[in-house]
Amino acid sequence: MPVRRTTTRITVDSGRGVFMISVAAELAEMHPQTLRMYEQRGLISPHRSPKGTRLYSQTDVDRLRRIQEMTTELGLNLAGVERVLALEEQLEATRRRLEHLEQQSSEVRAEMEAELETARRTLRGELVPVRRSSTEVVRAADFRGRRRA
Fold first, then answer.
1. Burial of residue 52, with CB atoms counted within 10 A of its CB: 0-12 exposed, 13-18 middle, 19 or more buried
2. Number of structural domains found in the chain
3. Most buried residue, 16, 26, 67, 115, by CB count within 10 Å?
4. d(CA 147, CA 149)
């Protein structure tokens, strides 16, 4: 009887800490001590197991690779890397805020257009211009009263 093999795939959230420091260092092609130094500088914040073991996520590994790219290819020092990362976070927060404001603006615009259309339907025939060259308008009943006076 042949042995039947099964494969199980597990999907893990990219922000969940699953790699120990040695694995994360290997994936990022760095020395584990470099990861510890980056943590001390606040460039990376690995999760901690209940016993205090550092657990790095795929997002952490990607960030480590990005830091390495900035230091090796762009020639930035760690202070420069810190500044770039802070500016990127500010830019992302601003982008989210802008999206929120655009959404609010669209909602308010739709409400205003609906109210304006309701007002036009309600007041159709109720408003008349006072003079042809004027933008001033009055209620039709008031206009009839002005003409007689």
1. exposed
2. 1
3. 67
4. 6
pTM of the model: 0.63
Phi and psi, residue 48, nearest 5°: -125, 140
Q: What is the CATH number of the domain that holds 22?
A: 1.10.1660.10
Alpha carbon distance 62, 30 (integer Å): 12
**And the tokens for 29?**
């092609």
Per-residue pLDDT tens for 61-109? 999 999 999 999 999 999 999 999 999 999 999 999 999 999 999 999 9
101-138 pLDDT, tens digit each = 999 999 999 999 888 888 777 776 665 555 666 666 66
Indicate whether 59 belongs to any domain: yes
Alpha carbon distance 82, 90 (integer Å): 12
User: Is 115 contained in some domain?
Assistant: no
- E strand or H helix at 102: helix 78-123
For residue 109, give the amino acid letter: R
Domain that includes residue 43, residue range: 11-75
56: three-class secondary structure by DSSP: strand
- Written as one letter, the residue type at 30 is M
